[in-house]
């Protein structure tokens, strides 16, 4: 009495087909699971046994061997419960139709009810690619699973629903199908850029950062509005593209961060980890690799407030992913690649007391103190930040002035979207969406600089001692500035503004 | 009553209970070098290995809880040994019958498929 059903496990952000073979034979009654199960899978024995019994079926008094194939891949998570239970019931002859055309994923409770599991989206996608007839999921995972077209999704509430489905073809659950189209598209924010007093230059920099997905750092005394500005960046980001949506949702699916309120990621994420974060929390990791904050900020913004307070080794981890847009996590048992195309927004004070360079406060720090503080943010990291701006303390007039004169998020966003559309059109046949992703040949091709601008650029490299990478980054930034100006060629003005945004490199060593 | 008598008393009670419920007794006190099985019986498609446990008081826990992991392993090993010489086409089952003695009367409980 042998049965074979299909389930899946998640590796990186993709599903991976796992065959669950169930064999019932004579011999001393036993229930064994082989095929590299981890703790949660091994525990599923007890859940499956109780769930089958409490759903009104007889648990076979035989030697039960479960094999999870392929045998060289670690099987993780409680979602194998459903496949194992289905296999056992099938081997006992409870089903009158074929159960091997479906993919099963779900955690069982002792009562036989099904619980929602993580990573349903990548599994559904895999099931479709594998040309399976459908996928059987817990009712609570239904809306997430039904984001995928061209595959049948069967929601079940409890184990006995499954028998009903295979014996009568009847689906007992009545959850509503929620597709991407029916989900609310308009996002309303409770915050707006018009609430930020003054700081016009910083807002300009924010627009450029949003338009071209450029990294940005703000340096300024406490209370000047750095955090306020950063939080409002999400209100002006260009909308998430169709093809980006599913990939981003996959990451949130495997982390179990989707729920009935958020089935599909519809806006660019904004992640704001506290500075106590560990390396594996930031870039991802663990014995079985899981994505970290930089992957959760994929296609969106990673905001690091109080940058020098982060552990230095944690910050240095950002260097490679910032260049490549992906992070490779390699551990003894397995390795995984997670996408991490994020815009870094950082904020810091100029010195430990916070008032270095401020007109109205005396800085109380000593030179070595300031040096030590700034050295926490390494040169290579700064080199990767295109826009480096000072956010000075506000003047008395600005503090007491009326707020509503300031530009609103709505008009800023309009500008950003227009500049983004210029880029999208230009990169139609390339696999990039933002100027900040331009490299090598493409950079040469799309960033033609006016003669005078070229002269300025040469001068800047010489005088500021800029690296080759900084040169590339200035070109990309100038490209975005020109796009906002609706200019084909990079004019002197555009280049000049881009260079000016790198001035902090130099100013920091006083 | 000494230990042996007490044990036999319990097993007799268990046998008469099983017979009453339609079991066919195949063997009693099957032993080999490393273990013993109190009762071996047929119950329809099953061959059942029964361990009988008897207690005069609950001071040291219930009778059934005395059949611990080690005891279970021992019974399973003995059952395998039995099957070597008495091959059976039936499915295997391990039962525990617990008897608790109170006021000279035994209270019997039958745990089917106990382990």
Protein architecture, described:
The complex is a heterodimer of chains A (510) and B (115). Chain A contains 21 helices and 16 strands. Helix content of chain A is 38%, strand content 16%. Chain A has a five-stranded parallel sheet. Chain A has a four-stranded mixed sheet with strand order 1-2-4-3. In chain A, strands 5-8-9 form a three-stranded parallel sheet, with helices on both faces. Chain A is of the alpha/beta class and 510 residues long. Chain B is of the alpha+beta class and 115 residues long. In chain B, 30% of the residues lie in helices and 41% in strands. Chain B is built from two helices and five strands, in the order H-E-E-E-H-E-E. Chain B has helices at residues 3-20, 69-85, and strands spanning 24-32, 35-43, 46-55, 91-102, 105-111. In chain B, strands 1-2-3-4-5 form a five-stranded mixed sheet, with helices on both faces. In chain B, strand 3 (46-55), helix 2 (69-85) and strand 4 (91-102) form a beta-alpha-beta unit. The longest helix of chain B is centred in the first third of the chain and has 18 residues, at 3-20. The chains are: A alpha/beta (510), B alpha+beta (115). The A-B interface holds A 26-29, 61-62 and B 46, 76, 79-80, 89, 91-94, 113, 115.
Summarize the structure.
Chain A has 510 residues and is an alpha/beta fold. Chain A is built from 21 helices and 16 strands.
The total of helices of chain B stands at 2
Outline type of chain B: globular
Major sheet summary line of chain B: 5 strands, mixed
Mean pLDDT of chain B: 85
Assess the beta-strand content of chain B as a share of residues: 35-45%
Lateral strand order in the biggest sheet of chain B: 1-2-3-4-5
State the helical fraction of chain A.
25-40%
Helix content of chain B: 25-40%
SSE topology string of chain B: HEEEHEE
- Estimate the global geometry of chain A from the Cα principal axes: elongated
The biggest beta sheet of chain A reads:
5 strands, parallel
What's the pLDDT, averaged over the residues of chain A?
A: 88
Uncertain residue ranges of chain A: none
Percent strand of chain A equals 15-25%
The largest sheet of chain A has its strands arranged as 11-12-15-10-16
Structural class of chain A: alpha/beta
**Rounded to an integer, what's the Rg of chain B over CA atoms?**
14 Å
Radius of gyration of chain A: 28 Å
């Amino acid at each position: 009495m042998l049965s074979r059903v299909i389930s899946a496990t998640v590796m990186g952000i993709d599903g991976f087909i796992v065959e669950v073979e169930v064999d019932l034979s004579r011999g001393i009654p036993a229930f064994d699971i082989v095929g590299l199960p981890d703790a949660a899978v091994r525990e599923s024995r007890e859940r499956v046994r109780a769930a089958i019994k409490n759903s009104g079926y007889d648990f076979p008094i035989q030697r039960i061997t479960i094999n999870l194939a392929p045998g060289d891949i670690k099987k993780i998570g409680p979602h194998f419960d459903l496949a194992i239970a289905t296999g056992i019931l099938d081997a006992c002859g409870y089903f009158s139709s074929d159960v091997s055309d479906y993919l099963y994923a779900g955690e069982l409770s002792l009562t036989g009810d099904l619980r929602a599991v993580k990573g349903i989206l990548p599994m559904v996608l895999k099931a479709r690619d594998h040309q399976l007839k459908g996928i059987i999921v817990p009712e609570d995972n239904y809306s997430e699973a039904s984001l995928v077209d061209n595959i049948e999704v069967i929601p079940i509430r409890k184990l006995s629903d499954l028998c009903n489905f295979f014996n009568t073809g009847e689906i007992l659950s009545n959850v509503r199908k929620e597709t991407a189209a029916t989900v609310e598209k308009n996002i309303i924010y409770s915050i707006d850029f018009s609430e930020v007093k003054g700081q016009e230059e910083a807002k300009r920099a924010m627009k450029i950062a949003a338009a071209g997905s450029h990294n940005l750092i703000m340096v300024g005394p406490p209370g000047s509005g750095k955090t306020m500005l950063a939080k409002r960046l999400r209100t002006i980001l260009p909308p998430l593209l169709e093809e980006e949506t599913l990939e981003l949702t996959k990451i949130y699916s495997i982390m179990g961060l989707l729920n009935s309120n958020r089935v599909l990621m519809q806006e660019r994420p904004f992640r704001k980890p506290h500075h106590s974060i560990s390396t594996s929390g930031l870039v991802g990791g663990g014995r079985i690799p899981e994505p970290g904050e930089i992957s959760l900020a994929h296609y969106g913004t990673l905001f690091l407030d109080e940058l020098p307070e982060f552990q230095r080794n944690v910050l240095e981890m950002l260097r490679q992913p910032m260049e490549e847009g992906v992070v490779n996590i390699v551990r003894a048992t397995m390795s995984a690649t997670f996408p991490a195309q994020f815009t870094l927004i950082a904020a810091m004070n100029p010195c430990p007391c916070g008032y270095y360079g401020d007109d109205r406060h005396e800085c109380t720090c000593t030179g070595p103190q300031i040096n030590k503080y700034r050295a926490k943010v390494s040169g290579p990291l700064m080199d990767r930040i295109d826009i480096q701006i000072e956010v000075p303390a506000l003047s008395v007039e600005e503090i007491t002035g009326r707020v509503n004169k300031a530009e609103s998020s709505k008009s800023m966003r309009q500008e950003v979207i227009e500049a983004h559309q210029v880029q999208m059109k230009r990169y139609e046949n390339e696999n990039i969406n933002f100027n900040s992703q331009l490299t090598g040949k493409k950079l040469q091709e799309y960033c033609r600089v006016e003669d005078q601008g070229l002269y300025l650029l040469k001068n800047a490299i010489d005088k500021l001692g800029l690296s080759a990478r900084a040169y590339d980054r200035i070109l990309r930034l100038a490209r975005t500035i020109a796009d906002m100006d609706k200019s084909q060629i990079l004019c002197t003005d555009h280049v000049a503004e881009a260079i000016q945004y790198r001035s902090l490199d130099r100013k920091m060593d006083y | 009553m000494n230990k042996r008598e007490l044990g036999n008393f319990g097993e007799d009670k268990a046998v008469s209970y099983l017979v009453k419920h339609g079991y066919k007794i195949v063997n009693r006190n099957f032993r080999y070098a490393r273990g013993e099985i109190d009762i071996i019986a047929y119950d329809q498609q099953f061959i059942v290995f029964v361990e009988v446990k008897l207690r005069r008081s609950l001071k040291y826990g219930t009778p059934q809880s005395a059949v611990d992991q080690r005891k279970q392993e021992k019974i399973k090993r003995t059952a395998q040994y039995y099957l070597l010489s008495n091959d059976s086409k039936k499915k295997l089952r391990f039962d525990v019958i617990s008897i608790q003695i109170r006021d000279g009367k035994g209270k019997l409980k039958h745990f089917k498929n106990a382990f």
